[in-house]
Amino acid sequence: MLSPEMLMPTGPPPQAVLDQRWLWSLLMLLLGLTFVMRLIGLDIAGALLTGLMLCFGIIMTRDGMQEMAKYALVYAVLCGLNFFFDILPLITELGGRITRTTEPVTATSSSHGVQQTTYTMTTKTTPFFDATQGIVYNVQSLAMIMSPLCMALGVYLSISANNEIQRHAPPLFEEEFGWNRPLGGQAPAAEQGQRLGTADAAAPRPQGGAPASGSSAGGSSQS
């Protein structure tokens, strides 16, 4: 059985991927800042997701990017999913962040023992950045912008790295399974000619003193 590690290229990635190491370092820095901002903004779930992507990226870029070939495609998928779920609330709230509060107003009881409570829902729209709302509010808004930017950069870098690694990867089991041969199992003409030449060279030849079959036949006909 073949393990997934055997199907992955080993060693450092191609030079084109190594040349983008500074972009990966920038991505790790931005993810770290987004992680801190989400903690300040009390967005615990978002901070956990950002922290996981940060740790995943550190694993991929350590030791000369030795693990890049294994995880580049997975990292691209995860960044793409996070980008999708981050960009939707950003688009809806760029024109103003909406907050809703519900407060009970009155509570009455009928003669049949049925209690009725009236609530008031207040909807308030504030600018995306507002100095009067405090530091937590503005840090939340900044984190909402930073997160999709980080995920978009992660998608670009990981897909570029995966494509470059696959382009430089050697073909697997080309000789053993004949994956480079055309359909039908026939070997190329050059390969067939080479095999025929090898077979002719290996065939036994008659001894120098023994007459050929054609000569003996000719002598018997003359007599």
UniProtKB/TrEMBL annotation:
Stretches for region Disordered: 179-223
Compositional bias annotation for Low complexity: 201-223
Keywords from the named record: Membrane, Transmembrane, Transmembrane helix
Superkingdom of the organism of origin: Eukaryota
Transmembrane segments: 26-59, 71-91, 135-159
Protein's name according to its UniProt entry: Uncharacterized protein
